Amino acid sequence: MNKELKKQIQKEYQKRFGIRHFIPGKTSIQASGKDFDWQEMVAMTEAVLDGWWTEGRFADEFEKKFAKFVGVPYCITTTSGSSANLLAISALTSYHLGDRRLKPGDEVITLAAGFPTTVNPLILHRLVPVFVDIDIETCNASIEELKKAISKKTKAIFLPHHLGNTFNIDAVKSLCKKHKLWLVEDCCDALGSTYKGKQVGSFGDLSTFSFYAGHHMTMGEGGAVMAHDPLLASITRSFRDWGREYWFKTGEDSRRDKGLGALDKSKLPADYDHKFIFSEIGFNLKITDIQAALGLVQLGKVAAFTKRRHENFAYYQKSLKKFERFFVLPKATPKADPSWFGFLLTLKDDCPFTRKELIEYLHRHNIVTRMFLAGNVINQPYFQSYAIDYRVSGKLLHTDHVMRGSFWVGCYQAIDKSRREYIVKVLSNFFAAYNM
Ligand SMILES: Cc1ncc(COP(=O)(O)O)c(C=O)c1O
Description:
Elements: H1 3-17, H2 38-50, H3 57-70, E1 74-78, H4 81-92, E2 107-111, H5 116-124, E3 128-132, H6 143-149, E4 154-160, H7 169-179, E5 182-186, E6 194-195, E7 198-199, E8 206-210, E9 223-227, H8 230-240, H9 289-299, H10 302-320, E10 327-328, E11 336-337, E12 342-347, H11 355-364, H12 381-385, E13 391-392, H13 397-405, E14 406-410, H14 417-432
Parallel strand pairs: 2-3, 2-4, 3-13, 4-5, 5-8
Antiparallel strand pairs: 1-9, 6-7, 6-11, 8-9, 10-12, 12-14
The structure holds pyridoxal-5'-phosphate.
């Protein structure tokens, strides 16, 4: 890119988004959001000027670098974390997996406490989600409940690492090994979190990430599926690319020697164009190269983003400990080093104020809060409106508790020292009236 244009972009960035001073009470503090500078804009402009726009050189580079970052051999980028979840579950239903494929009626253990698009791919593939409760302090799957939920029909475990905190990976992996279950990690809220020093997303057969604007790093919208096994990676790519039997880079045009291994090509003319042979019930969920260019710059900043999230969480944890009589405070899973998505406060049932009162007070002071995703997904309107086949194992007591009593404030990279101190000050002022 010529220097003039680069300078112009830098100037324009400065004009539109340059340093904004924080004015306590006046400047809104978001719970999550994107953090960027002119470099992202230059990178996206480079991709625009390439004139390619569909998946291309930036996407190739991103997939290589993100796979290296997570520590797995294969990364397949996609349009969102929800698409990544859909692709991961779709891949596991493939006939290319023989006896190990997921079939309608098979059970997949997951959480009702969470985000709907972790559960929805299961419903769409006529698998049966089996919901287990969470631990109230970690907000992740209770291992005791998970053990009790396993039945003869269980074929997979699909769990999120909630709010950046990892689930107990050793325990879940050993259950998967014992019962020969697939493990899929939903890392959409946990990019950069580690367990025993290894990145989340490197433990499951498949794992998923989101690059939505409110997540740890962004492509605007975007996501990825990670795989260890070449066959699972190829199946995922096929589902993503219309269900193609043969994999082609965008713009490539030739015949291939090796495809996925479709079972029956008997009805195809022998000369049929390899680009138009479909062996899966696929979609088109590819990203653009403009998104990938943005993602590459953001990926280079993940270490700094993670550091800030650590600092913010540690500050909230230390400062709010004295209010523990009102709240269950979040706790990292043993052996985990979370890159916290948010700081969750769960009101105890005997708390003298309501969540609504506290959240309204925070909003009046320009502090934005979020609830714990969908809370208990079973209570959401779509579960009342469709005949969804699911099973609840045990009782969802903590799941219901977070739905009625939890909310979170931001830990994200744009929350600096002055902003986090202001959040704690406003919270402390609210609690002062109840702390005699
Ligand atoms: C745990 C979890 N999984 C999946 C998603 C979906 O990600 P996306 O918004 O990129 O579709 C979200 C959304 O925030 C989420 O919280």
